[in-house]
Amino acid sequence: MFRSLGDLTGASLIATDGEIGRICNFLFDDHSWQIRYSVVDVGQWLTRREVVISVSAIDQPDWKTKRLGTRLTKEQLRHGPDVDSHKPVSRQQEIAMREYFGWPAYWTPLSIRCFLPV
Question: Is 118 domain-assigned?
Fold first, then answer.
């Protein structure tokens, strides 16, 4: 069944220790047009109003309750790398988030491709 991203906009994102906030936007890969990140409005509990979370860290939605779970904690988000959700995410920011949160890399680093056997 196909769903619209509009169906997820406003959905609650639930961390292991409580609600993080509501999904307010999505960031796409500009080459493949795959969704890479969700932008979450965290309200007042964090000085940053929005955080960027990899879709690999978000569980399948519960369409009836309009809620999604994540294996992250509020504390992880509080101390995670700061990414401006209104600008393109740089590779350096992606690497910093991947290293901090342990998210898988969706890209193949050039240095690895150069050494693969032919």
Answer: no
